[in-house]
Amino acid sequence: MRILVYDVAADSGGAATVLQSFYEEFCKDHKNQYIFVLSVYELSAQPHIKVYRAPWIKKSPLHRLYFDYVVAHRLVKKYKIDQVLSLQNIGLPFAGVPQVVYEHNALPFSEYRFKPWEAFRPWMTQQILGRMMRHSIRRAKKVLVQTNWMKDEIVRQCRIPENRVEVKFPPVEMLKTAPYRLDPDKPTFFYPANGSAYKNHKTLLKACALLKKQGIENYQVVLTVTGEENEGIRAIQKEVEKMGLPIRFQGPMPRRALFDLYAVSVLVFPSFIETIGLPLLEARSAGAWIVTSDCLYARDMVGDYERACFFSTFDPIDLSKKMRRFCRNQK
Hints:
The protein is α/β, with parallel strands linked by helices. The chain contains 10 helices and 13 strands. Strands 3-2-1-4-5-6-7 form a 7-stranded parallel β-sheet, sandwiched between helices. Strands 10-9-8-11-12-13 form a 6-stranded parallel β-sheet, sandwiched between helices. Helix 5 packs parallel to helix 6 and helix 5 packs across helix 10. It is elongated, with a radius of gyration of 22 Å. The model has no long low-confidence stretch (mean pLDDT 88).
């Protein structure tokens, strides 16, 4: 069988990791022939694997549309493709052959629905991309997802048979850490996340403000944002400085440093939209305590973990109570 693997969107980060994992898997499969169609990401050709790259796709959205709707269709015919595997959430337009679609964007299927005045880009993703993804899913021969909760939601929202959706958990390397040890006199709460609105730093800020009002300051919070990412994060940094809260804007950290910090801290994870919520699995591997928002993805990842506790996602009072448990010198 000749399979065209389509992923012109991937260039770095999680998308590139997914692409690389499929490539490594297919390198071992000599029964089929594969044609990887990419933009800027580089892969090596193998006797049974061809790599077609078109960096010009990244020049503009129009270049991308032309490739999706015109060039890609020609490639399917040129290589006499039997099946398309799309790794970018939406199937290939006018492919003319059966397609398998890999869904890794959780926004359209999340239980939280954005308002346009709240965060325009996530709202657009849910409204526009979400419709395109559902249409693509209904037409696909098979759908691959990363988690059980996404499978359940896709089956429910798209009304397709359960056997057409397969859970294919991405390979995740867990680094070894020293035995878990949390300082009971001054615990560290760690939140590794970017500055996106759905990461919900606001609820964490409000919870810390409540702890200060109660006279509890014998802790520290470490964030992996710098404080300059966007208007929302800058506003949070100003509030932290104004109230004198024990929150440190550490900025991005190497993976090794992340795991070292997991081993001596409580992971606090208020995000309300994730596909997997990778820090939950990383902290779990280090034996850390976890305080996370009560969302579908979190229940899926750590619902059976004895050191995980859940708080109502947008309730800073509930979060502050969970954090207070780790502060020995309470007032």
